[in-house]
Amino acid sequence: MTRPVRVLYLAGSGRSGSTLVTTVLGQYAGFFAAGELRYLWQRGEVENRPCGCGLPFRDCPVWRAVRRDVPVDRAGGIAARLRGRLRLRGVPALLRRHRRGRRAVPAHPDDAALAGLYAAVARHAGARVVVDSSKLPPYGALVGALPGVELRVLHLVRDPRATAFSWRRRRGLDGEADQRLMSRPPVWKAALLWLVWNTLTARLWAGDPGRYLRVRYEDLTADPEATLGRIAAFADAGPSAGAHAGPFTGPATVRLAPTHSVAGNPSRHRTGPVPIAADVEWRRGLSRWSYAVVTALTAPGLRRFGYPWRRGGPVAPRHEED
To answer: Residues near 172 by Cβ (< 8 Å), separated by ≥ 6?
Structure first.
């Protein structure tokens, strides 16, 4: 009997530290930092954007091996159909199906290709755990229902005012030299997406503590080595997983080798010694108006995830996942 592929799925909203976590986990024995695999078909195969290692996707030796086992000739169609299946407007129906114990994202013929992708990644990377930082909760629900996949969900949460500020920065899709910019949603839209995706992530998985772990960006950056060791243990990659198997050269410094993340924040290309520290520029840079708008729109989630209403207020101590 073929052993299922263990997928550690990073869920939640963007700009919450997922690229950092994925890249660091990729340095642990048994882990493969795949990046945002939901974008492999479009950004990787169709657009041939750079892999985390710096080579164009189709030239990377790891992805070249994986491509031989998946239907790359149908990549454009799979990408388009995925976008349709994962639309925001489909969330209410997704929740109804979930409450009734049905598959949250209905099955589709493309699912065989998706399942084959995860199997091929694990096989060619020699990984016990495939780290997928796609974040979008509906896609996580889809992956969790694929045959041959064993899903564990890492829910990354960050103060919504910080994420809204981060989204407004001008960043090239694949680094400073790239003229194509990453998405820059207005603060109100970033706030609503933060609320929807984080609430949906908790709704789908928080009731199953064996498969769900919540980690806040603020706790991660306060104690990086212990937090990453806790995440590695949760993913259960085997006896080599844990704090002593990672890349830390100090409590808050890692040495990064290139990964093969297929898509994500351009910081996935960083290598060498990298300090891990909280990005708190938003505390000075976010205007009063923007702070008030984001706070009002995300109010239902602030208390749940332990964030203060007032600027400069303390983040609540880490609590057990609900």
So the answer is: 178, 179, 180, 181, 182, 266
Which residue range forms the structural domain that includes residue 243?
A: 5-161+210-277
* Three-state secondary structure of 228-284: HHHHHHHHCCCCCCCHHHCCEEECCEEEECCCCCCCCCHHHHCCEEEECCCCCCHHH
Q: Cα–Cα distance between 168 and 304 in angstroms, integer?
A: 25
Domain assignment present for residue 320? The answer is no
d(CA 132, CA 177): 26
DSSP lists the bridge partners of residue 215 as: 156
For every one of its 322 residues, what pLDDT tens digit does the chain have, with 9 covering 90 and above? 588 999 999 999 999 999 999 999 999 999 999 999 999 999 999 999 999 999 999 999 999 999 999 999 999 999 999 999 999 999 999 999 999 999 999 999 999 999 999 999 999 999 999 999 999 999 999 999 999 999 999 999 999 999 999 998 866 566 556 556 567 899 999 999 999 999 999 999 999 999 999 999 999 999 999 999 999 999 986 555 544 458 999 989 999 999 999 988 888 999 999 999 999 999 999 999 999 999 999 999 999 999 999 887 778 887 545 4
Give a yes or no: residue 295 inside a domain: no
Q: Which residues contact 60 (CB under 8 A, 6 or more apart)?
A: 51, 53, 260
Looking at the 3D structure of the chain, how many domains does it have? Answer: 1
What CATH number should be reported for the domain holding residue 124?
A: 3.40.50
Distance CA 289, CA 280 (A): 18
Asked whether residue 223 is assigned to any structural domain, the reply reads yes
Q: Does residue 98 lie in a domain region? A: yes
